[in-house]
Amino acid sequence: MNKAPRLERPVGFFERHWPWALFGLSVALILTLFTSILATGILEKIDDLRFGPNLRGYTFGGITMGLLSLFFVLLTLWYSARKRRNVTGASLMTWLWMHVYFGLLAVVAAVLHAGVGLVSLSFSTGKLLFVLFGIIAASGIFWRLTYAFVPAKAAKATLNYSKEGALHRAEEQLLEIEKITAGKAPELQRVKEALLAREVPPHELAAMANTLAPDDRALLEEIVQLAASRRRALARIPLQAKFTSRLQWWRIVHVPLAFLFLFALFFHVLGAFDTHRKVLPVGTASEGPLSAFRSSEECRYCHKTIYDQWKDSMHAHALNSPLTIVQNNLDMKHTLAGMPTPDPRRMCINCHGPAVAAMIDGDILPLRSARADEGIECVACHQLPEPVTPGGGALARLYQDTLIRGDMFFGRLESPVANPFHRSGRTKTFEEPERLCATCHNVNYDKNNDGKIVKGVDLVLQTTFDEYREYQRGGGRSTCMNCHMPVVPGLKSAADGAVVPFTQDYPAPDRKVHDHSFVGVDYPLDLVAKRDPQKPKRAALLASAAGFTLDETRTDPKNLNLKLSIENRTGHSLPTGFAFARQMWIELIVKDAAQNTIFSSGVVAKSDDDLCDAATFGDTSNQLRGFVVGCTQVDNQLVNIQLKLVDKIAALADGNGQAVLDEIGDHVLIQSKEGNETYLQHLTGGGVARIRPSDKANLAPIRTLQRKTFGYAVPLPGNVRSGSFTARLLFRNLPPYWVRGMAREQPPKELPRLEPLIPNLQIVEMARVTGSFSR
C-alpha cells in the first residue's frame, strides 16, 4: 500500500536556528572585543576624553555602540514591515530568526553603549530605556519558546485555531439534524431539543426512545451522533481561545512596549545631547531635570571635600550675605534706579550669582528661590567654555550667555574618570585659570559704550585683575591659585566621596586637588560669630600679604622719629578689590619706661569702633561722619590705606588743565566739588585716595612689587628718657561706619537685620614690629 505524500519542503539554510545563533554570538563577541580594547585605554593618547578607558554613552566607543544598537533595532522592526509587504522573497521563518537575533544584538550593543552607567545609582532615561528593552527582548524570547511547545499540545485538543471553522462545523451538524427531524412527530422534536441543549445520559436517552414510534426510533442514533459532533465543535471554541491567548498574549506586552521604547528612545537621544536644556528658555526651571544648570548640591555626593570647602566660602554666600542683600537693594533704590535690566541694573547680582541670575528674575535680594543660596556655584567656572572680557561677569550678555547649559563640566584633569552625573571636557580657560577670576574681579561699566574702560570717564570700582597683569609685567611669578586656591596637602582625590562603580566608574589616579575655599578677606557677617572655619586661613593669607619693617628709629630733643615700611607681597594692589571698603592701617603705641602710653595712633577700643580718619571724621561736611563711633579727635598721623568712595569723581588736572596720569597711565581721580563720601556705588562715582594730614602722604593702595614708607614724629615729654613701642599692621574688611549707614536705611521688614551684626566685624593682625628708644 502506497504512503500518502507529505506536504513538506526542504528547510532553507537561513530558516534554521543554528546559523543565526552562530551569527549572533560572533557579532556579539566582536562588539565586546572592540569595547574591551577601548577600555584598556590603548587609544587614550589620541584623545583621553573620547578614546579613553571610560565606558559611557558619550565616548567614541559608546556612541559607536549606540548607533549599532539603533541600527539593529531598525532591522528588528523591519520584520513587522516585511510581514505586510514581501520585498525580498525570504520566508517568514527567516525573517523571524532575523527579528530574534538582531533584537538580541541590539540589547548587547545597548549594554556596551551604556557601559558602567548601567550600575550607577542615579536615574536616567538610558536606564529606563534599557529596562524597556530588556522586557521587550524577554517577552519576545518567551513568545518564541511558547510557539515551540504550545502548538503540539494544542493540536491534540483543538485540531486547529479556527473559531470560524468550529462554528461552521457546528452549524453544519445542526442543519443535518434539522433536515432529519423536519416534519417528524412532536416526541422526536422534544428529544432533538434535549440533545441540542445538553449531553443526555444513556438511561434518560433510553427512556426517551421508548416514547418514539418505530420509524422515529430508527433515526435517533444518527441524531445522537450529529448532536455529539456539534457539541465537540462548540467545545473547541473556548479551548481555541485559551491556546490562542497563550500564543498571542506576548503582543499585549511586546508590541505596546516596542512603541513605548521608540518614544523613550527619542527623548533619550534628546537628553543625551542636552537638547531640552539648550532649547527651553533658560528660566524654565531652576531645579530638576529641566534646569539649564545643575545645582552644586548635586556635586557634593562625589566631590565631598571640595563641596564642603566651597560651602563655607564667600562664593557660596555671594547672594545671601547680609551686606550684599542690603547694599544691592539700596543700589536698586538709589544708584541703579531706572536703569535698563539686566545690564547694568543687575550688575551686582550678575556677578554674585551668574547661573542663578540667568535662571531667576528679580533684582531685589534675597531672590525667591532656594537656588539663590548657592551664589557663585560650580557652574560659574566649570561650565564656562572660554574666558570673557575682564569684568564681563557683571553683564549678562557677556557672561551668562557664554555658560554652557547641560551636563558638560570643564576642568584641567588629565584622563578624567567617567561618572553618571556629568561629562568632562577641557578648555583653554583652565590653561590660564586666572582669566576665570578676571570675569568678576574687575568691576567696571562702559558708560559711553566706546569699548574702552577709562578711569574718570567710565565706572571703575575694582581693578584686581588689571593689577595682577601689572604684577606679571613686573616679573611676578605667582598666580591667583597659589594664594587663593593652593593645593590641599594629603588630598589625592578630587572625588573623595565617590563610590566605585556606582558614582564613579573606576578608581581615579592620584590628583593634585586645589582648595575651593577661595579664601579672601571676607566672611559671612551673620554666621561668623558662631562658626568661622576659614578664620585660620584668612589669618594666614593676610600674614603672607605684606612685609612690615622698622626702617629707622631716631630721637631728637622733641620727638621720637620712626619710619615703618609696608611691602606688598601679593599679586595685586594692597588692599585690593573694593579697596574703599577695606581698611589696612598701622596701629602704633609708644610707652615710656614705666609702661605708660605716651602716644598712640590707629588704636580702636573694640572691633566695631572706627578709625579717627581725617577724611571722614575730620570733615564736618561729610555726610557719613555721624556714623563714626569711638572718636573724639582726628588722628592726624594715622596711616589708613583705604580708598574713599565718593558719589562724584573728577580727574585731577595740572595748571594747564591737562589730565594728570599716574605711573601706569590712568587718570588720577579726585573727589568732585559736588561729591560726597558714600557707601553706595554710584555710576558717577569711584574711589579716591585719602591724604594723611601730618605729611600729605598719599594713602592709595600699595601697587604690586612696591613698598611704602611712613614716618612718625612722636612728641616726647621732657621727662621721658627711654621707652618702647609696638607697631602692628592691622586689617578690617569693612569700615563700621559704612555698615551703620546702610543699616539705618535698611527697610524694617528686610532680613537679616544689619545693625546687630556690626560687633561681628573682625580685626586681623597682619604683622608687628617692636622696638625701644633712649635719649
Can you walk through the features of this model?
The protein has 775 residues and is α+β, with helices and mostly antiparallel strands. The chain folds into 5 domains: 13-156 and 251-272, no CATH class; 163-248; 301-484, no CATH class; 535-635 and 694-774, Immunoglobulins (Immunoglobulin-like, Sandwich), CATH 2.60.40; 644-688, no CATH class. Helix content is 37%, strand content 13%. It has 20 helices and 16 strands. The strands form 6 sheets. Strands 7, 8, 9, 15 and 16 form a 5-stranded antiparallel beta sheet that branches. The chain has a 3-stranded antiparallel beta sheet with strand order 5-6-14. Helix 4 packs antiparallel against helix 8 (214-248) and helix 4 (125-158) packs antiparallel against helix 9 (250-272). It is elongated, with a radius of gyration of 44 Å. The termini are far apart.
Helix content: 25-40%
| Helix/strand structural class | alpha+beta
Helical segment count: 20
**Which stretches of 5+ consecutive residues score pLDDT under 50?**
none
What overall form do the CA principal axes indicate?
Answer: elongated
Number of domains: 5
Cα Rg: 44 Å
Strands, count: 16
What separation lies between the terminal Cα atoms?
Answer: 149 Å
Biggest sheet architecture: 5 strands, antiparallel
Strand proportion: 5-15%
Detail the topology: elements first, then pairings.
Layout lengths: L16 H23 L20 H23 L9 H23 L10 H34 L4 H19 L4 H12 L4 H9 L3 H35 L1 H23 L2 H5 L24 H8 L10 H12 L13 H6 L1 H6 L18 H5 L25 E4 L11 E4 L7 H5 L3 E4 L13 E5 H10 L6 H5 L50 H11 E10 L3 E10 L14 E10 L4 E5 L38 E2 L2 E3 L2 E3 L17 E3 L14 E3 L18 E9 L6 E11 L3 H10 L18 E11 L1
Parallel strand pairs: 1-2
Antiparallel strand pairs: 3-4, 5-6, 6-14, 7-8, 7-9, 7-15, 10-13, 11-12, 15-16
Helix pairs in contact: 1-3, 2-3, 3-4, 4-8, 4-9, 5-8, 6-8, 12-20
